TrEMBL record:
This is Nucleoside phosphorylase domain-containing protein. InterPro entries: NLR-like (IPR053137), Nucleoside_phosphorylase_d (IPR000845), Nucleoside_phosphorylase_sf (IPR035994). GO terms for molecular function: catalytic activity. Residues 280-309, 359-396 have a biased composition (Polar residues). Residues 280-396 are annotated as: Disordered. Coiled coil: none annotated. It comes from the Eukaryota. Residues 8-248 form the Nucleoside phosphorylase domain. GO terms for biological process: nucleoside metabolic process. Gene3D superfamilies: Nucleoside phosphorylase domain. SUPFAM superfamilies: Purine and uridine phosphorylases (SSF53167). Pfam families: PNP_UDP_1.
Amino acid sequence: MPLNERYTILIVCPLGLEAAAMKGFFDEEYKMHAMSRDDVNVYTLGKIGKHFVAIATPSDTGLTSAATLATDAWRTFKKLRFTLLVGVAAGIPLRGRGIELGDVVVGKRICQYDWKRELGNGKYELIGHLNNPPATLSQIAKSAPEEEAHIFVSNLLRKKLGTDEFKRPTIHYGVIASGNSLVRDASFRDQILEKERDALCIEMESAGLTNKHHCLAIRGISDFGDENKDDIWQRRAARAAAAVATYILSECPPFDDDPPSEEQWWLAPQFSNAQQTDMPLQPHVQSRQPTNASHSQLDFYEQSPQPSSRAGYGIRTPSRAILYQGSHNHFPHPQPQQHLPLESGSKLDAQPHFFENNPFKQTPQLVSIWSQNSSSDPATSELSDWDSSNPGIKER
């Protein structure tokens, strides 16, 4: 699988401090790799829970920049499922709703407040009601037990910040008003509230993402959109929003992989020893374009942290398999040998065979497998940065 196709979640953070806050909740961070020629975005890549995520910041604030960024990102990362918009917003204080600085609003609906129809005599109505956010993420947000979510977010903030001083944020699920103007005028804010009485906060990007990019907006309250607006609460609000986004991703199950393309071979050489176990194995195959038409190269890695006695999908040591589709004259070695990793105290009886349900009915004539520890094969030098103490997919 191409590296870009591992990423299923795009996180758009309009400000650099918001991106830094979101990055702070990564479980793993990966190096950048080649993007599309037409994509000028800069991505921070990592993993949160079971999801591979890409964080990006638009070049400017507003609906258009956010929409352009997301369009490019969805073209670069072919397997994206959802977009999260994570950052700060101006809260709309209203008696009885309890919106406070540092709280978080998860958008159940986005209203574009500057998309309106004039009615005459200075009156207008809002018509900018956009598509609802993704049902999967919305269901997690609105059905999560309130106490459980609050405890998770509070503990996460305490763990990441190393302090107990951060107040426990309240998580609200409601309408977000979005437009192209930075609101710092109480009278203008109140006009928006007059037309959209359910609005809990105001920001500048959601309306550019919601209709096309399966977007859920998560906003921390950093001010109240009036003349007293300042940036004192921005970092705290950004961290609170990032913590809520992390909670939602932790509750979201991993996505099923799409059927493999014709470039992806399904190979499962199996080996038995005295400690063989039937653990579930998850294939993650990276296909490379061969330099010679006679063979294709694949890398495959273990996804489970448990020791495995099988090679192939569950092998602990990364291996390189070369599948020969042409004649025997194309073999790079006159007599390819198998160099397979031995676990301590085990006896290995190597009998490779192929996955019987090959969806493309390809029958390679020979498979040669080399382990990372074999010095006889020069291809293993490319795998020298493998960290055996931290199994799982790594960017290289």
